[in-house]
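Can't attach files on this board, so I'm pasting raw text. These are the components:
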Amino acid sequence: MYKKEEKKKEFVYGFKQGIPIAIGYIPVSFSFGLMAVSAGLPVWLVVFLSLSNVTSAGQFAGTNLILAGGGYLEIALTTFVINIRYMLMSLSLSQKVSDSFTLPQRFLAAFGITDEIFSVASMEKKALTFPFMAGLIIGPVAGWTLGTLLGGLICAARPEAVASAMGIALYGMFIAIIIPPARKSRAVVMIIAISVAISCILRYVPMFSAISSGFRVIIATLIGAGVGAFLFPIKEEEET
Amino acid sequence: MERAFIAVLIMALVTYIPRALPFVAFRKKIKSRFIKSFLQYVPYAVLGALTFPDVFYSTGNLATAVCGTVTALILAFLGKGLVVVAGGAIAVVFLTNFIF
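---
Top answer:
Structure tokens for the assembled complex are below.
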């Protein structure tokens, strides 16, 4: 058990960690809102979609299928396959949470496991507490939802140059997250190199063209992290 | 619109399940050294595969995307924070848009 002030401190710390993610989400969700509303979906539905899904690729693919008149099963399968990668992230985070995490809290926090929240949470040195996770999740979810609302409301042409420049924002964040640890660890460099190589092979070799982007990430991750764990097992004292 | 609403609810469900299942199911600490190492390396592998090669298509123009990516790599290598790296990449893509 820990005190109220400590919970508050954890929450505030988590919230601060989430701010860059929330900012990064706004242009992306803005584009999504703009796209979905201009394609004919009502603003309330598009905002509800962002709030209830909080995911990029899966949500974009699902929305495309809704607009194209796809069936429920097709929508469910496509979205699920793109999102299977969350199982790896969720499994990884399940090993990092503090003992104070209750079962209902796990159900709540799981809602907020996005690529970006996962990466920030997994780089934390300490065990993850519920107030920290709540603080970390709340900003990005708000940013994602608000961005969608703004995009939907404006639903007007933006200067093309600004729109396309914003597309790189989240990838820039990913790069900022993986490069500093890669400078310090040869194992990390190799794991990144393997998973990027696999990802590129699956993307460009025609034989693999049927593999969806979701499965591409899963396969690349399994091989990259698997080879890494085999060649560079962590030392016993490194884990806590 | 009812159809679209039901589709959105289905999407929300199939997005939540893979997030919640392992997080709720694995409440004991895993003992295997291999699996522990594997899980520790997952973030790097995931983010690497998510970023490449998709980043090159993120701006609708391969040339500006490459410039933005190189900028992000350099800034990240210099140890800059998330906002600086992402902001720098956006700025370079925006500027190079006028060239290419």
